[in-house]
Amino acid sequence: xxxxxxxxxxxxxxRPSRLKEIWQGNIGYSxxxxxxxxxxxxxxxxxxxxxxxxxxxxxxxPYDPASIDIMNSEYPPAWxxxxxxxFWLGTDDQGRDLWSTILYGTRLSLMxxxxxxxxxxxLGISIGLISGYVGGRTDSILMRLADIQLSFSTLMVAIxxxxxxxxxxxxxxxxxxxxxxxxxVIGVAEWPQYARTVRATVLAEKKKEYVDSVxxxxxxxxxxxxRHILPNSLSPIFxxxxxxxxxxxxxxxxxxxxxxxxxxxxxxxxxxxxAGFDYILSGSWWITVIPGVVLVVLVLVINLLxxxxxxxxxxxxxxx
Length: 320
Fold this sequence. Notes:
Number of helices: 15
Helix content: over 70%
Number of strands: 0
CATH architecture of the largest domain: Orthogonal Bundle
Strand content: under 5%
Structural class: mainly alpha
Oligomer: single chain
Number of domains: 2
Largest sheet: none
Low-confidence stretches: 1-7
Distance between the termini: 41 Å
Shape: globular
Radius of gyration: 24 Å
Mean pLDDT: 80
CATH topology of the largest domain: MetI-like fold
């Protein structure tokens, strides 16, 4: 006993950290051998870091009317003739520095995408757990609701909801709370993706012996679902979440392009593309093209990371 007690602290001290275990395990090994995943993660980290550091890196504040001069509107990037010094990516139709506006817009698009996925995951996981564990009539009702939800596209639901919101509350109130409206509608429109996946996992897990064991110990359904079944359902949830972040960013950009998203005074990537679309034929292509390239690259690297996560977490697809 004394020897074991003396050795335990040494063993604990030698035990690698959780991050080191992951890096040395199958996930880290697969990541190191996948150049597409490495490049995608590097690009995503760079874009995210630039967006988060927008107040520090941006030379101008696009939210501050005092820093905007309408006389500086539609100046081209630095590599095009007629550019204005100090605006290396040019300016938009309002005279805002496009580099600064893209940094702030990317931060806003990422925030909306991540928060919308949190709403989706909370609703979908909760409904999926209850549906799969309880079963019976409850399962049938919840899955029929999911079927009805899936019969409408995300954009259709969002367009109807946001149009009614603008009509009920007015443009000023909508512009003030547009971020919250977008997060809510994108989150509510996509919860069935999570619910169906979690339900299928719960149906398989609740028949296993460890669930019967915790029932015998007297644990309630809530604890069984959250503490025991849910941790075994995390792999597909991670995969869905990665893809859904990209989908949420695209949905926000599409709604902003249609005039139902972020107002011009609160630039996102979608609102920037929308604002510049009216000027693209007149020669001011950079207002739409540059934010569009940033949006495409951001969504592409997130989808590539999602494909890698899916392959690693699925034993049937993972090849080592």
